[in-house]
Automatic annotation (TrEMBL):
GO BP terms: methylation
Gene Ontology terms, MF aspect: methyltransferase activity
UniProt feature coiled coil, ranges: none
Keywords annotated in UniProt: Methyltransferase, Transferase
Annotated source species: Gossypium aridum
Superkingdom, natural source: Eukaryota
Name this polypeptide is given: Methyltransferase type 11 domain-containing protein
Family label: Belongs to the methyltransferase superfamily.
Length: 142
């Protein structure tokens, strides 16, 4: 995802599960990631933003808590709004929804926690990708 080979505004939805987590593995202090980590994460997000159509949705499923992801997602280069939810028992996942072209520029600290239906899955079910089909994309557009 660091160099997406697609033209601009190609996709309505982009989903990543764990890619950012991998980029942060050797980042050092999570509050002050190393410059190489910052460059890779920004390259990934810039690529996603580029390939999303206007009003497209980027879904990020990650272990990364909002206070670590917000500085990247909310960079001035991006025009997306940011919403998130937490799911999982004991071991939490974060489900971010970023909507291109809907950023609130009046409040630079704006990030909204959304209320989503509880997803109760066993860890084994999360290992496969079928749980993604439990997400209703049309519901996200409302």
């Amino acid at each position: 995802m660091l160099d997406l080979p697609f033209s601009n505004e190609r996709f309505d939805v982009v989903i990543e599960k764990g890619t950012m987590d991998v980029l942060f593995v050797d980042s050092g202090d999570p509050w002050n990631p190393q410059p190489a980590t910052i460059s890779k994460v920004m390259a990934m997000l810039e690529g996603v933003h580029k390939v999303l159509k206007p009003n497209g949705i980027f879904i990020s499923i990650t272990f990364g808590q909002p206070h670590f992801r917000k500085p990247f997602f909310h960079n001035a280069k991006f025009t997306w709004s940011i919403e998130w939810s937490t799911f999982g028992d004991g071991f939490h996942y974060f489900f971010y929804i970023l909507r291109k072209g809907r950023r609130c520029f009046d409040d630079e600290d704006f990030i909204e926690k959304i209320q989503m239906p509880s997803i109760s899955l066993y860890h084994e079910e999360l290992e496969g990708e079928d749980y993604i089909f439990l997400t209703n994309i049309e519901e996200l557009n409302s």
